[in-house]
Write a structure and sequence with these properties.
This protein is of the alpha/beta class and 149 residues long. The protein contains 6 helices and 5 strands; from the N terminus they run H-E-H-H-E-E-E-E-H-H-H.
Length: 149
């Protein structure tokens, strides 16, 4: 499974409005709910927040990849949000996070979940790519950047 197989413009929000971790996660989850992939929103939100309790999914260079395996979804889902001003996501480098990738998968799709995580980790290693993504102003621009990546 590839990232572009599950990414659509209606699951990308530029810019995000939330000012903290919970608000951003809720915004990203709302996108997926509107797209029809959420079976149980409350269970899904709880799974994401439980995963955050194990350790923040705020990585380095402004990237955060909240994720969870949960029965609250019926397939592998991905939403992307960009917050140009950044928020404190308790990232491992202490920097504000600007690029958010929410990955959700049912427990029986753990392999696909890992594939998407791996693809995102590779893409976001590039500082130039992250700068371009942070500057994207539309969902179409975000998809175009991943198509060219």
């Amino acid at each position: 499974m590839e990232l572009l197989d599950i990414l659509s413009t209606n699951c990308i929000k530029v810019p995000l409005l939330g000012d903290n971790k919970e608000e951003v996660i809720r915004e990203l989850l709302d996108l997926l709910e509107a797209a029809g992939g959420i079976v149980d929103k409350a269970k899904t939100f709880a799974a994401i927040m439980d995963r955050e309790l194990l350790g923040s999914t705020g990585l380095e260079r402004g990237v955060a990849i909240p994720h969870a395996k949960t029965e609250g979804v019926n397939r592998v889902l991905l939403s992307i949000g960009i917050k140009p001003t950044g928020i404190d996501f308790q990232s491992i480098d202490g920097e504000l996070s600007r690029l958010f990738f929410l990955i959700l998968a049912p427990p029986d799709k753990a392999g696909h979940h890992i594939e998407i995580l791996t693809e995102l980790a590779k893409a976001t290693k590039s500082q130039a790519f992250c700068r371009l993504l942070s500057a994207a102003r539309t969902p179409e621009e975000v998809i175009e950047l991943f198509t060219e990546e």
